[in-house]
Amino acid sequence: MSRFTPLLFAAALLAQPAQAAVTYTWQQVEASSSMPANLNLELVFSSKAVSQGSLSLDVGNECRFETCQFRQNDLLSLRYWYGAAGPQGVNLIDYRYRTDPGGAFDHIRLDLTFQPDGLLSGWISANNGESDFFMRSSGPLFTMISAHSDQERGCGLQYPNCSGSTGLLVEVPEPSSAALAGLGLFAAWFARRRKHRA
User: Fold this and answer.
1) Which of 11, 73, 87, 158 has the smallest set of CB atoms within 10 Å of its CB?
2) In the predicted model, what is the mean pLDDT of residues 158-183?
3) Domain ranges, ordered by start, for the chain
4) What are the tens digits of pLDDT across the range 32-64?
């Protein structure tokens, strides 16, 4: 059986669906004294949207005060926060794919181009009724034009004129199929070696 393990692993690898999502994260280039440190932005798109080369969206909670979902399949999630994620940080906007919007005012607008070098360009605006931000790029370099929050920390009372930080939105590389195949072959070799020792 162990000699067939690499073949089974390769078959399973080929049977897997193509990459379903592509993640981009904020990499700061220059901080701004009018903004808190540790800005974080994470966007996850469908691989179909990325392969098309550009994406324009204007979506919101169409049900207003009822529970409903954003009606699109290209932006899988958008997370925007300062500091550590979770209780230690300031979580401002957290839209997860196919989950209910947090409030009646949830609204995301963007017009982006997916660059072949794994960078984004364009503009992004997001608002959940408690926090909002707007950023625009010159080439791939994004600048935070404005950000606000009802929270005291973050871009709230602490930084009333929040703007100015610059950075790139960079694609997060996925583990390659070759690396996964290599891991499977190593596991098969290890299992065969154990069998011979027994």
Assistant:
1) 87
2) 78
3) 1-18+175-198, 20-173
4) 999 988 899 999 999 999 999 999 998 876 665
First to last CA, the chain: 15
In one-letter notation, the amino acid at residue 57 is L
**115-129 CB burial, b ≥16 within 10 A, e <16:** beebbbbbebbbbbe
The DSSP-derived string for 102-139 is SSTT-EEEEEEEE-TTSBEEEEEEEE-SSEEEEEEEET
Pair 108, 75: CB distance under 8 Å: yes
| pLDDT tens digits, one per residue of 66-78 | 655 566 789 998 9
Find the mean pLDDT for residues 149-161: 84
